[in-house]
Design goal:
alpha/beta; Rossmann fold
Length: 203
Amino acid sequence: MIILEGLDNTGKTSLQEKLCGEYGLEGVHSPGPHESDTVLSWIIEAFNKDRGVPVIYDRFPLISEEVYGTILRGGNIFNTSPLGLQLQEKMEREVHPLIIYCKPPEEVISNWNNREQMAGVVDNYKVLLSTYDTLMSILRTKYSIISYNYCHPHDYGRVLDKIDSHLQWWARNRFDKSLVSYRAPGPNRYYDVIKRLGCGDVL
């Protein structure tokens, strides 16, 4: 599981498109704010899918809700849900996603160019950005995290190297051949990485 996180206007969607093309993998967007039961079911499905196929997520509710829920909606819905807490523990204990924290300079982020944003984002972007920074500092003790600034040309190569390593870890530790539901069309970077492990024909 590869998760792109960061404030609006930080290049997540563009990066997801590039990475999906590079690796031949599926890209999925977070469902956003919904009733907790709906989102919890979506997370369970995502965790199950991760045993058979790596996916590149544009945000993931268990992470982004800690920022957007807390600042814009008065609280993180997962912190008051027994199942939500269990899923947070499961992500840390079993799933171990790679998190790519998208963060160009603040002056770039705040250049909205009249693009419509979710209610409250523009007015609260400074506190949202600060909360994201704090959260990522905490999560670095639990997960593999790499920062990405699309204004730096060399950052993309660093991200590719990190993803290659994560996919190798995933294939050795998470992949369940009985659950595989996807075969990446070759040649692509995902196929090359997995083939080096001797299981390219399976995936």
